[in-house]
Design a protein that fits this description.
transport; Porin; mainly beta; globular; 2 domains; voltage-gated monoatomic anion channel activity; transmembrane; single chain; two-stranded antiparallel sheet
Length: 368
């Protein structure tokens, strides 16, 4: 941990990153390349329902000045200029969007050993002023975050937070929405070597009297591959696997399932299930490769390889049949027979007791 309490946005950040970062519910594809001169160019495409959005962004660094420019499909040009350390502990950010003439904004961030301050003001006649401040040290910090509308003279945002850090544990408590909601979270680093961590977040709304509990975990299978999972009290379960297949190039697959919808035997649609990558377009060889890699790193190849298949119940049907097949390695041939989800004994292939992914797919098609 660095010296000083940091900024208000750092309160509870570790838990938020563990529970929400890198999860994708939309069909999103991003490609980022780096030139020899240090220029980063990114292209992003997102499909939301029937709408496809895209943007191209570039980042240029020159000494302590970083310039980010992004152009989207709505003909908007977003520009952000960051000046790092014009004075010790100070950072200046200037941002604007063309053609919106009222989007200009200036931010100042200052970090000290015992304080962290962030302030921003819009470049308009009646701007909204944002201010956040934190006092304390790298162990205990207390802060507030507020926004003031100069046009109406009202506070549009008022939050407060408390953070406690000790060794491998970070706990945070925040009061949000002008005191209408309270959130408690914690982050615990179990193993620094494998980057294994667990975390949880509990939110309560006083106006609606509703509670939301989310717990999650992460684990690095190796220095290139990591997995994450989370679940909340509403039955939504999410998981992702991320692989760095080359330096600064990440391949991430994430998905979310509403377990309550599964119990009701409803159709798989956008109201109940969402995937970062379209599952029905995965080739069979890719599913087998993915699970073999995952089980290999988890040292489960000596036991069994689990293959989960989502197959259409009928052609052009949106309902799916889920099949689970266990593929045993050759060392276990003769000791046990592969079975599927309903425990029905398979018909062994001549000279081969291993149930392959293709065999599993054909058998599930027959059951469908």
């Amino acid at each position: 941990m660095g010296k000083g309490p940091g900024l208000y946005s750092d309160i509870g950040k570790r838990a938020r990153d563990l529970l929400y970062k890198d999860y994708q519910s939309d069909h999103k594809f991003t490609v980022t390349t780096y030139t020899s001169g240090g220029v980063a160019i990114s292209s992003t495409g997102v499909k939301k329902g029937e709408v496809f959005l895209a943007d191209v962004s570039t980042q240029l660094k020159n000494n302590n000045i970083t310039t980010d420019v992004k152009v989207d499909t709505n003909s908007n040009v977003h520009t952000t200029i960051t000046i790092d350390e014009p004075a010790p502990g100070l950072k200046t950010i200037f941002s604007f969007r063309v053609p919106d003439q009222r989007s200009g904004k200036v931010e100042l961030l200052y970090q000290h050993e015992y304080a962290g301050i962030s302030t921003g003001i819009g470049l308009t006649a009646s701007p909204i002023v944002n201010f956040s401040g934190v006092v304390g040290n790298d162990k205990l910090s207390l802060g507030t975050d507020l926004s003031f509308d100069t046009a109406s003279g009202n506070l549009t945002k008022l939050n407060a937070g408390l953070s406690y850090t000790h060794s491998d544990l970070i706990a945070a408590l925040t009061l949000n929405d002008k005191g209408d909601a309270v959130t408690a979270s914690y982050y615990h680093l179990v193993s620094p070597l494998s980057n294994t961590a667990v975390g949880a977040e509990l939110s309560h709304s006083f106006s609606s009297n509703e509670n939301t509990l989310t717990i999650g975990t992460q684990h690095a299978l190796d220095h290139l591959t990591s997995v994450k999972a989370r679940v909340n009290n509403y039955g939504r379960t999410s998981a992702l696997i991320q692989h760095e297949w080359r330096p600064k190039s990440l391949f991430t697959i994430s998905g979310e399932v509403d377990t309550r919808a599964i119990e009701k035997n409803v159709k798989i649609d956008q109201d109940h299930h969402s995937f970062g990558i379209n599952v029905k377009n995965w080739p069979q060889w890719f599913v087998v490769w993915l699970w073999r890699k995952l089980t290999y790193h988890m040292q489960l190849r000596a036991a069994a390889v689990v293959t989960v298949l989502f197959l259409p119940a009928r052609p052009s049907s949106s309902q799916f049949v889920t099949g689970v097949c266990l593929t045993f390695p050759s060392s276990q041939i003769g000791q046990s027979s592969p079975v599927d989800e309903d425990k029905t004994a398979p018909s062994p292939a001549a000279g081969n007791a291993v149930l392959t992914g293709l065999d599993c797919r054909e058998r599930m098609k027959k059951r469908a």
